[in-house]
Amino acid sequence: MSAPVRFHLDPDLDGLELLRRWMVAGVEAGGFPARLGAYPVEAREGLVRVACDIDPGHANLVGLVHGGVTASLIDMAGGAAVMTLLKPGQTLVTTDLTLRFLNGAPGDTARLEATGTVTWHDARKAVVSAEVHTDTGLVVAQGTVGVAIRAARP
Fold it and tell me: Which residues touch 69 (CB under 8 Å, ≥6 apart)?
């Protein structure tokens, strides 16, 4: 069962304001972030933190948090960090994603958080450094996200 998207992009708002609206909506924004249980908890220009409250459905077959959860959080934190730089009407899309798993997140982890920081950008693209850690501070993964910035449509 999918979570319907309830959050719609307003082309008159810049990316930071849209992200702030997503923060207010939380998982109620719908779509994949709602299915994952991920939502932004901090946003400022060029930096975003995304949290995910872990439940048994996030586990892999050996009892750790599935690596796909971690990869998704890196992707979301990366895109959201670039979102803070968007002008009204612009959108974005991930062009590439790399990550390195450093530790397994135990299945009893209560929450994962991903921080994305824009390290380089121009008018058409950006690069973000991202890190995921558990609620106890264990670093689970580090990664890099490439993002294309798409021009506003007339």
Answer: 36, 52, 54, 58, 112
Q: Which residues does residue 115 pair with via DSSP β-bridges, in sequence order? A: 49, 131
Q: CB neighbours (10 Å) of residue 87?
A: 12
Query: What is the SS3 assignment for 139?
Result: strand
What pLDDT digit, counting tens, does each position of 128-148 carry? 999 999 999 999 999 999 999
Instruction: Tell me the H-state helices in the chain.
Output: 15-25, 31-36, 67-83
Distances in Å between the Cα of 113 and the Cα atoms of 71, 95, 143, 153 are 12, 22, 13, 33
Say whether pTM exceeds 0.85. Answer: yes
Residues 92/149, Cβ–Cβ less than 8 Å: yes
Task: Give residues with Cβ within 8 angstroms of 9, minimum separation 6.
Answer: 18, 91
